[in-house]
Design a protein that fits this description.
The protein is of the alpha/beta class. Helices cover about 50% and strands about 15% of the residues. A four-stranded parallel β-sheet has the order 2-1-3-4, sandwiched between helices. Bound molecules: FE2/S2 (inorganic) cluster. The site of FE2/S2 (inorganic) cluster has 13 residues, from helix 3.
Length: about 170
């Protein structure tokens, strides 16, 4: 569990990396060690096109402060169009995240080939710094409070209903 003390707080970034490019780049650059660090949890996927918007929303809902996707450069996808499909979903997702009040710097898509170890490192470092500056997202806590509020409203309305039946 990451340290929740504000002075020691470290952001949690969930990174979905395509096996054929960004994951390999991370591995070659030794960034894979970060899998075990509190900041970045790397999830290896076979193609960025495999990333469903639900994965990103779930990562945020479960406590991620930022989500990064790394895929093959346009034209280099091993499944020919996976990254283009992802790009279309990302555009839609950006709008959804904005509506949910999630700052755009918390979600990033980068094309990083297997040979770009330096790029994967710099993108991760930059994103960790940006998310750190934004502070914790705290979606699980927000959801918890929202659940309590809804429960309260439900109780109140069922109480009123019972009352109106009596009357
Ligand atoms: S195989 Fe890497 S993005 Fe499709």
């Amino acid at each position: 569990m990451p340290d929740q003390n504000p002075t020691n707080w470290e952001p949690v970034i969930v990174a979905f990396f395509c096996n054929w490019c960004t994951y390999t780049a991370a591995d070659l650059a030794g960034v894979s060690r970060l899998r075990h660090a509190p900041n970045v949890r790397i999830v290896r996927i076979m193609c960025s096109g495999r990333v469903d918007p639900q994965f990103i929303l779930t990562a945020f809902a479960k406590g991620a402060d930022g989500v990064l996707i790394g895929g093959c450069h346009p034209g280099d996808c091993h499944y020919s169009e996976g990254n283009y499909k992802l790009l279309r979903r990302v555009r839609l997702l950006n709008r959804m995240l904005r509506d949910m009040g999630i700052e755009e710097k918390r979600f990033r898509l980068e094309w990083i080939s297997a040979s770009e170890g330096d790029k994967v490192k710099s993108v991760i470092n930059e994103m960790v710094a940006q998310v750190k500056a934004l502070g914790p997202l705290g979606l699980p806590k927000q959801y918890e409070e929202l659940d309590k509020e809804l429960e309260h409203i439900e109780q109140q309305s069922s109480g009123k209903e019972a009352h109106s039946h009596v009357g």
